[in-house]
Amino acid sequence: MWRDTVLVAGKDLRIEARSRVALSQVAPFGVVALVMFAFALGPDRATMAKGAAGLFWVAVLFCTVLAVQRSVSVESVDGARDGLRLSGLDPAGLFLGKAAAVAAQLVVLEVVLGVGVTVLYGARIEAPWLILASCVLGTIGLAATGTLYGALSAGLRVKETLLPFLLLPIAIPVLLAGTRIWQAALAGGVPADGTPWLRLLVVFDAVYLALGVVVYGPIQESA
Fold first, then answer.
1. DSSP sequence for 6-25
2. Per the confidence metrics, is the pTM higher than 0.85?
């Protein structure tokens, strides 16, 4: 399973490295979203700093939808999905590999968006370890759910519009927990303020990673 995970993740990351869609299209989209949020909030830097945590994670969710759609679309032509099914690769390895590739792209996007939040909104990070922990756990959760629901929508003609409809409601725990953790970190609050939300992210990640490992194979067969 782990060998297949590395193979699939490497395949997807090589495709992304050659196309550079995440850097040339998804990352600029996220930055434009942050700029639009700044215009909507007005020129008051204090107001923007208060909303920085939530707006960061909203932008991350939007970028996740685009990254997952890209991950699904690369296998929608030339029978690539059928080739993967017939390759003998472990379905659990397929799931983990594709999720790992999406997670790697999200890490880069989150770095870009984090810099954007700091520059545009004047947010100050008081507890960096909370920021790091929330981003790691949130990225795992978003990549796992995105890969799972991307596979569910892959065989449908309306997958481009169905994926956000399926993914965004499921990702609400990540949005809520990530926002609360960032608020504690940006406000310089006591680190314990964010730890209950970190536990929520750990549970969310464990549930969807386990679910994806178990059901990804049947989903691929029916897609």
1. HHHHHHHHHHHHHH-HIIII
2. yes
